[in-house]
Amino acid sequence: MPYRNAPWFILATIAVTVAGFWESYFSIWGEVPWQFHGHGVAASIWVLMVLAQSWTAHRGLPIHRAVGKSSLLLFPFLIAGLFAIIDVTAKKYVAGEPVALLIGASELIGLSLAVAAYVLLYYRALKYRRKVWVHAGYMLSTVLILFESPFSRIIGEFVPGLVIDGPEDFHLIIPSILWAMVPELVLIAGLWLVYREKANPFLVAGMFVVAQMLTMGLMQDNGLLRTLLAMLGTVPSEAIVLTGFALGAATSWAGWQAGKRPAVPIAPAAQPA
Prior knowledge:
Layout: H1 6-21, H2 34-58, H3 63-95, H4 98-127, H5 132-146, H6 148-158, H7 173-195, H8 200-218, H9 223-232, H10 237-258
């Protein structure tokens, strides 16, 4: 099976997630908005699912397919969770929360590209589920996209020059996010150098990472994004989250249908002479 060390990469991502979000989420579990729980729980279960899928595949366990099929039900919740973060960002922007006012536009475009990345990566993982290298690459890429967010928190706590101690350092949030994407691109480059065309799914993920870096770095003060963010802040949270759920469900259905084997026509029975 491809990428035999993938479970270790996923475990490392889990460790980074716990460390990165410990102060802002895990240690204050009961105080955070419900939108954070929606995203945090869904994303955590998704990463554990990909870990189980990779681990069972490398050991030839028949449960691998059942674990993979569970992703069809999990994916709508993963996308709904991302839409929940878009919702809380917009609500904070409208309420005048300082961080949201400063980087809300960047977060909106970054989250939107993350949603687009997940939809495309998972759709192609389902479509090419009978091609082992392609399928594995796309599924693992979904975990790679999740790496930046917690790692940027670690950078903001420990890396000299990017440490965020208070409001006077909020301007360092976007640079810490951009630097957190660099290891993703380094890993993608390394995988491609080793596996070449077999690792093409990671190049697709890499294009989204580069797009996030460019847009989040250059569009922080974009008026159109700020207008859209303000508009989203007036939309009921339930409508935003359900839209994300519907998009995720549509992706699961479309990807599963695209990956079905074509029907083999049955030849008509020969007529007696």
